[in-house]
Amino acid sequence: MVNVLRFTDVSYLRNGRPILDGVDWTVTDSDRWVILGPNGAGKTTVMKLATANDYPTTGTVDVLDKRLGRVDIFELRNRIGFVSSATARRIPANEIVRDLVLTAAYSVEGRWNEHYEDIDIRQAERILAEWDLAGFADHTFGTLSDGERKRALIARAVMTDPEVLLLDEPSASLDLGARERLLQMLSGFAQSPSSPAMVMVTHHVEEIPPGFTHVMMLKAGRIQAIGPMATTLTADNLEATFGMPFELTAHDGRYAAVARP
Ligand SMILES: Nc1ncnc2c1ncn2[C@@H]1O[C@H](COP(=O)(O)OP(=O)(O)OP(=O)(O)O)[C@@H](O)[C@H]1O
């Protein structure tokens, strides 16, 4: 078991306000984590630290066994897969989907003068098929639906064989069918022993893919509950995190929560 992420007593202050406070969290290579919490709880800030895009104010963050602040973060970022709505905004609308995935191996957006190896081309084709994008390989990113875009960004993120895959609200804005298709794929990916550690931010228990093993529940920058999914995702912890009582049901590894009257 290898530690992929380790937060030790992490705080993150802005304008004198704690955005994160006393966060202790360890992710090992076989873990699949969900970070759940209301708007403004600090979920995206956790992702910023976990992707080496920012530093804690106090406490320490180790990413892939390297202490932030002491390591060349560019070397580290090549080993991290990250998908967020901001990632999508950086992709030119005329980028060809096959190139979008293929160029990840060379850490550039847009295809320039790289000489691609056959092995990379085969890997890109395999990953496109795995994420149900084979039929879109020659399409441009700008013509894809939201669901197809999300899958294309995940395909790009896994192209480099990252040691951790971080997804910030991957199913936000998707219609029911697109969401369910994405969740099925994420669930399959999460359950494969060859997949990297995964961390996914969401607002909704309905969006937790089966196969995710742990949950961190954040409220106002502090951990409200943390641990294995089965024992930590409870109606009581949801109430403590979201500030209202819920009826929580679980069926075949999927969860649903509705307000208790
Ligand atoms: N650099 C910053 N400067 C000032 N305030 C910040 C900064 N970064 C985050 N915040 C504030 O910290 C709080 C937590 O933000 P964050 O984006 O991490 O929350 P979140 O849980 O991801 O929210 P959402 O679910 O709405 O995306 C918010 O109130 C936000 O306005």
Query: In oligomeric terms, what are we looking at?
Result: single chain
Report the biggest beta sheet as strand number plus sense, adding barrel if it closes: 6 strands, mixed
Strand order of the largest sheet: 6-7-8-3-9-10
Order of helices and strands: EEEHEEHEHHHHEHEEEHHEE
Word description of this protein:
- The protein is α/β, with parallel strands linked by helices.
- It is 30% helix and 30% strand.
- The strands form 3 sheets. The protein has a 6-stranded mixed β-sheet with strand order 6-7-8-3-9-10, with helices on both faces.
- The radius of gyration is 18 Å and the shape is globular.
- The structure holds adenosine-5'-triphosphate.
- Adenosine-5'-triphosphate binds next to helix 1.
- This is ABC transporter ATP-binding protein.
- It holds the Pfam family ABC_tran.
- Keywords: ATP-binding, Nucleotide-binding.
What characteristics describe this protein?
261 residues, alpha/beta, Rossmann fold, four-stranded antiparallel beta sheet, 9 helices, 12 strands, binds adenosine-5'-triphosphate
Give a concise summary.
The protein contains nine helices and twelve strands. The chain has helices spanning 43-50, 73-77, 85-89, 97-102, 118-130, 146-158, 176-191, 229-232, 235-242, and strands at 3-14, 17-28, 32-36, 58-63, 66-67, 80-83, 164-168, 197-202, 214-219, 222-228, 246-251, 254-259.
